[in-house]
Every structure is written in C-alpha cells, then in structure tokens.
Write a structure and sequence with these properties.
The complex is a heterodimer. By secondary structure, chain A is an alpha/beta fold. Chain A has eleven helices and 14 strands. Chain A has two domains: 214 residues, P-loop containing nucleotide triphosphate hydrolases (Rossmann fold, 3-Layer(aba) Sandwich); 67 residues, Alpha-Beta Plaits. The chains are: A alpha/beta, B mainly alpha.
Amino acid sequence: MINSHPMVELRGVYRYFGTTKAVQDVSFQIRRGEVFGYIGPNGAGKTTSIRILSTLDLPNQGDAYVDGFSVIDDPDRVRRRLGYMPDSFGTYSDVNVTEYLDFFARSYGLIGRERTRAMRHVMSFTMLDQMADKPINGLSKGMKQRLCLGRAMIHDPSVLILDEPAAGLDPRARIELREMIRQLADDGKAILISSHILSELAEMCDTVGIIEQGKLLATGSVDEIQQGFQEHRFVRVRLLGEIEALTSWLAKREDVGEVQLDGQIVIFAHTGDRESEVALLRELVQADFAIAEFGSHEQSLEDVFLQVTEGRVQ
Amino acid sequence: MSTADIPSGARGVDVATGDRERRWQRLEDWLESVGEGFNPILVKETRQALKSRQFLIAFSLLLIASWIWTLIGSAQIGEFIYTRPSGRDMFFGYYLILLAALGVVVPYMSFRSLVAESDENTYDLLSITTLTPRQIIAGKLGSSIVQMAVYLAAVAPCMAFTYLLRGIDIFTIGLILVYTVFGSIGLSMLGLLLASMTRVKFVQVVLSMAVVVGLIAAYVGGAGMTAGMLRFSGRMINTSEFFLVCLFIGTIYTTTFAIVFLAAASRITFESENRATALRIACLVQYLAISGWIIIPWIEVVDRTEVAIVFVATAAMYWYVIGIFTTSESPRMSRRVMRQLPSRLPFRYLFFWFMPGPATGYIFSLAGVLSASLMALTALKFHDMFPDAAMSRSPWRGTRVPVAPDSATVFALGIICWSYVAIFLGVCKLLVGFARKFTTMNLLLACGIHFIIVGAAVSLPFVIESNIMRRYSRDYTLLHISNPFYTLESLGNSWKRFDELWTVATILACAAIVVLLANLKSIATEMARSQIVAPKRIAEDEVELEEIREPSYKSPWD
C-alpha cells in the first residue's frame, strides 16, 4: 500500500521547560525514502523535537505524526514504526552484542525464526558479525554506534531517527555510516538525522531543516536552502587576453557587481540562477572574450548555516 | 564410500549418535519455544545476573555464611545432638542468612534494576519498545523472583537439615519460608514502585538511602517476627483463628500487591494512556475484599454499633487516601482515552468514576465513603434478623449481654466522615486545579497541598485556642470541628452526646455541600465527556494488523 501521508510530520510543535521555549512552532515533513538533516547549534531544540517525535516527551502544543499516527495519542503504534538512535549510547553491563540485540528484538515482539533472521540481517548490515560474542563494554565507539544503529533497525522500522550518529567517529567509520544511512533510505525508510558535521549532511540529506532557539529558520532541499539564502553567486573567469575590456564589459551589466581582479582572473558577484550563468557565458563567448576558465562558487551548507543562524543559545 | 562399505558396528554407532543429537536438538527446540514465551526483561536480566559480579559475590557470601553457621552450630550442639532438640536454633541461624538475601539484597537489586535503566541511559530505549509498562514491571519482578529462587535453593538443603535435629516441625519451616518469599516479593514490588516514582537523580539518591534504611528495618522486623513465630508456632497454628488470620493477611497482601504493581506500571505509562481505571478498579476490589472481612468482628464483637463506627471511619480514611491520588490527576483527558469511553450514555454515567480525572476521582472517593455508611446502616438494620448470632458465636458469650444497635449514631457519624472527605478532598482538588494554571503539578506537589491543608485544619484550632483565646481546655468544642481526628475521637468515644453529634454533622454536611457545589462545574465537565471516533488511520492499521495476525485456532474442518 502506498502511503499518501508523509512518514514524519511535525505540526506547529511547541515545547516549554518553565520559561525556556525549547521548541516553538516547528513544522516539517519527511517522506518515504527521504533523508532529512536536522541542523542547529547546541541548545537549539533539536533533541527536544527528536524526543517528541520518538514518543519520549510530549509537546505543550501541536502534534507530531509518524506514518500518520499521533505521537500523543498513539505512541504504541508510532513505536512499532520508529527506530531511535539517541546521542548517548545506552548500554547494559554484562551483556554481549548478540544478547543486546536479542533483548531488543524480543522487546519489539520478534519471535522464533523472525527474530533470528532480523538479528542476522542487522549484524550483517552493520558488520557486527565478527563481534557477536564480544561484551558491549569492550566495543570501540564506532562499533557501539553501529550496534546502536542495529538496535534501532532491529524491528525493521519505516522511520529512523538518528541523533548525532556520527559524533566521535573516525573518518572511515563516518563514511561507512553515511553509506549505511544512504542504503537505508534507498530501502524506503524515512530518516531524520541530526548532526553538527554539516559537510556530511549536505552529501547525505535530501532535505534539511535549520533550527535555532527553538524556531525552524529554514527547511527544504539543500539546493533550495542554498539558493534561498544566497543573494548572488561569485563567478570566477580566467581570461586569455586583455582584462580591462572584460571588466568594462561587465561593469555595464546590471546583474554583475563587486568586480575584483586577480591577475588574469576576474571574480564578480552575479545575481541569478544557473541558467542565467550559462547565458552569461554564452554572451561572453559571443563578445569574443577568450574564456579559459568559467566557474561559480556555491555557498556550502556551512556558509548557509552560518548565514541563517546567529549562534544564539537559550 | 557407500554405506555398504561401513562396518555395521560403526553404522550402529553413527545411528545412535544421530539419534542422540536429534533428541538434544528436539529438546533444544522445545526449550527455545518455551523461552519465546518468557518476558524479554526476565531473559535479559537472568543472563546479566548470571554474569554479574554482585550476584556472584552475594551468592558466594550466602554459601560461605551458611557453611560457617553449619560449622559453628554443629560445634555448639556437639554431643547433645541426640538428647537436645536444636533444630529451631539452627533454623533461625540459616534463616537470618537467607533473610539478608531475600529481605535486603533482592528487593534492593529490584529497586536498582529500574533506577539503573536511567543511569545507563537505557530507560528511553526500553520505553520506546513495544513492551507494555506492565511487562516491564513484571519482567523486573520476575528476575527478582529468579534470584530469590537461586538463593532459596542454596540455603533450603541446610534448612531441611534442621528438621532432622528436632525442635521444629516441617509445617513451621514451610510456613516461614512461604511468608519470607512473599514478603520478599512484596518488598521487591515496593522497590520497583519507588524506583518508578522519579527520574530525578537527586531524588533517586535520597530514595535509594530510604530504601536501604527501610530494608534494614524490614530485616530486623522480619527476624523478630520469625523469632516470635518459632517460639509460639505450636500454639499459634493450633488455634482456630490462625488460618483466618493467614487468609486475612493474604487478602490484604494480594490486593495491595495488585495496587502497587498497577501503580508502578502506571508511573511508567505514557501520559496519554488511561492510567487511572485499572488502579481504581483494584482499589475498589481491595475495599470490597477487606469490607467482607468485617463479618468476623460483626460476629465476634457484641457491640455492633462500635464495629460499624470503626468500619465507617476506617473506610473514610481509606477513601481519603485514595482520593489524594485520584483528585491530583490531570483534568485533561487525552483523545486516546476519549476513544475508549463507553459509547452508550447509561454506561458512561454508570462507569464514569472509573475514568481518569480529578472530578471523577473525587466522586469515586465520595461514593466509597457513602457505600461504607450504607453498608454499616444496612447491616445494623438487619441486625434483628440475626439477634443471636453475636451471642451464640462469640467467645465471650454468656458473660456479656448484646448491645442494641444505634443506627442514628452510625448515620450521624457516616455524615461526618463523608463530609470530612468531601471537604478536604474538594478543597484540595480546587487548590491543585488552581495551582495547575501556573505550574506543572505532579503527585508529590499535590500530596504536599493535601498535607498542608490537613495539617492546618488540625493545628489551627489549637493555635487559636492557645494563642488568641488563651484557653487550654481538653474538652472538645466546635472550634475543633476542622480537626477530623479530634472530632471523631471525641464524638466516637462519647457518642451518647447525641445533640452535639448532630450539630457537628449538620455543620459539616452544610460545608461539604458548599465544597461539592464549588466542584460541580468540573464534575459536570468530566461527566459530559463523550466518546470520540478513532482517526481513519487507526482503522486502517487495525485492518493491517488483523491481516498479519494468524488465527490462534484453526478448525480441522475448515
């Protein structure tokens, strides 16, 4: 059955802790197979909204839905569909990897062969097969994160919520985690991932939401957000020949400004989208400028994040 | 190589090995299928316990202590083993060792096991699984019972050995062990309830210390009671009342255990779920079960009016305590609970006091007190139908004459008790509701309000009397009407002062009606709640689940 509703939806969610407004009117949606990056400085309200979505906390106002079920009214149905990986790894003493996964598989009602199959799949997916009998306390940070991811997906949830999954991981483990997440999204899972490592999020996520002081400042695809907050792009042109002719040609145009010279390279601000950049290049060629190099510098997600947020904490 | 090439002897060995392996495999499969039915927490915690250092240390200490006691005890008995019955002393020594494990270690570990979920950051992970809160509590309790069984199995042979030393009968040994095991289960359950009360670190530390102190007190109390039982067991067991007392204790234990279990489960249940109904039903069952026991003093005690007064006053106290919790509930009813309301109007009004909410809880308590008064009055009314029952069955018969029942006094005291409950619960309910507008109210704060109000009502007349009126009389006056304990004590002891009794009853009834009217709006609001239809998505999910669920039984003719 194809679901018409979004897999995750927050509708006007508010959460107060005394006088602190942790989350204010936050709304967004995540569709099946979509990876949503939830970014914001520390204390922005990410974990609070994630906890509400994971049925661990209740909003003061508004509601959140997972696969169409309200986290307030039907947390039991939400929990069947949700895998949650918290930022802090919860571990039991005197338990090995298999026992840990077995416990959670049983806790999600998996029995018999179904449980064995789920555990085998999760251990193979997270590459924990070799560690099956190893005590959890003896696992490295990366392995613990894998185990935590494995635990979150043991009951094959349609929604995964990962709070800072890459924190403290070495570059290799991060790349592997990124691949795993991408693969899970390809399998049709809706994934919400919060992280401070924005470069990774930009590569991994289809959509992002930027939150600060409990308010969602921007939401949409990475490109949309980049475009939305980028007034102009900086175009870099390397010319073979006389540079002054080019600068005077550019100076006449309304869509160009802030022209700077660096030897044979001209850098200028251009207002417009990619199509207008293509048109500009065409015009330059038609005007007989010997263009050796043409490119524009896009703002990275970090740039957008810094531009959107002001670093305020509550 | 074909099978024909294999020597027949070797083939026989292979077949035998194969059969054995298959049998083992079958046994393993069977055990596996049995294990599927176990509570996941029980499975996990049993695995953990078997590997844990605490369990190993506790178990080793238990064995070493038993072994040392065996040596010391045997050395003390020495040559008198054939002449002096020494089983009781030996048993008591082993019992003290076992009690340390069952009465202190196991309940404390039970408390810790739930607290540790917060410490180890696993509570959130556990609570978002599909395990129900009752399964979580039952699993924790189950693992305590498994530990208990292991400790018991280690010391039981030593205890059985004491029977051979004479001086103690097997029935007493069994009885004490049964009491101890149930006591330990009860303490473990209480430990779980306390652990579920809060997740605030500081409060947990305070609670932890309180639990340790409480368990040590329970250990001393348990040891003292057992010493008494050992001393008087023969005389106790042979009395006709013994089994009645056991049954009575059993009634209180079972119903209290159910309430504590449900309370602990409701503490960890998510907020939008109905956390009240099951608890209220359990309280009602306990009330009715204990009320049933009133038949014993009814038969045994000659003055039935006194029995009725004590019954009504005790019931009022009980329903007041229940009311403290029920009137502290949130007035907001979740959509989830509203979906579960009875759809038909008569049922909704008939069962509305079982629904969550402070007003329904208020009515629930008032109905409880009213029922106690009605029960007492009805029993007194039909007293004449069994005029000789008290005399013929009473152990004191022949020496005392039956006292004529005084229904009017019971009626007046019933009004007084009901009014006190209505006033105190009603006022506190209003105050809690008012405070809720400004702050988040939890159970502890609500209990604090009740405590302050009752404390003020009790102490204020004394303060006025001593500081303003400069009067230090011991006589009851109407100034003390706000003090329920003093009022009931004074009027209960001298209820022959009929006029004063009715004056107090009238004043209190008027005040109770005022408070009840002040609460009327919230009562009407909660009563008017009606069932709402579940969203379409729920219906879709139900259909999906129905498709997944396999029929539990399939007819061979299908």
